[in-house]
Backbone:
């Protein structure tokens, strides 16, 4: 196990050297430009899943996307971690778009199909998704299998997360003052494609107000 862990570290350090060399060869000013600051137009809220690296799947470069990732790309109204990222991205960096991106084969969505004990932290984190399962039970029961149900839970979670975001004070102000827009997407791991679920510049009032605590 120790040898395997060491090999993994060596692999990413070696990979970093290749990245730095190739980047400099392609653009000698790349790192000098990055060191001047960041001006991303997009805040991406995605899943921590290792198969969904936003810069890679969107064919973007460092500096293009400001990123927050967590288990199952959830946005909870009382999560200070997400609140801080949103405040900085929207308020300080002035991003123009906020994307919440879920994905197929999501472990969080799959675990939300039942109430199995995952430990206190994960049970608490996934509780809103499990509530979505209960709320949409009739719809989910009509789907052919658990894979389809997990995808639908992932979609519903993205939409719910957008609802919460629309009530974050910095987001509300940016929507009204400068036309910030919010977008929901699903990344299909089976074919590498992004699918747009929802985009909006308004706010809906069916989720509790944002009040980090």
Residues:
């Amino acid at each position: 196990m120790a040898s395997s862990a060491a090999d993994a570290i060596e692999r990413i350090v070696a990979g970093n050297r290749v990245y730095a060399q190739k980047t400099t060869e392609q653009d000698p000013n790349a790192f000098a430009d990055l060191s001047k600051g960041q001006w991303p137009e997009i805040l991406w809220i995605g899943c921590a899943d290792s198969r969904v690296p936003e810069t890679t799947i969107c064919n973007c470069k460092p500096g293009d996307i400001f990123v927050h990732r967590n288990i199952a790309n959830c946005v909870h109204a009382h999560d200070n971690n997400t609140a801080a990222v949103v405040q900085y991205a929207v308020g300080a960096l002035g991003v123009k778009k906020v994307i919440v991106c879920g994905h197929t084969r999501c472990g969080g969505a799959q675990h939300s199909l039942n109430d199995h004990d995952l430990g206190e932290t994960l049970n608490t984190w996934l509780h809103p998704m499990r509530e979505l399962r209960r709320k949409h039970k009739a719809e989910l029961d009509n789907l052919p299998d658990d894979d389809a149900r997990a995808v639908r839970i992932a979609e519903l979670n993205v939409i719910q997360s957008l609802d919460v975001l629309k009530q974050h004070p910095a987001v509300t102000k940016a929507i009204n003052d400068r036309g910030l827009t919010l977008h929901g997407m699903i990344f299909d791991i089976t074919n590498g494609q992004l699918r747009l679920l929802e985009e909006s510049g308004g706010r809906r009032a069916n989720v509790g107000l944002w009040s980090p605590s």
User: Anything to note?
Assistant: The mean pLDDT is 92. The longest strand covers residues 181-188.
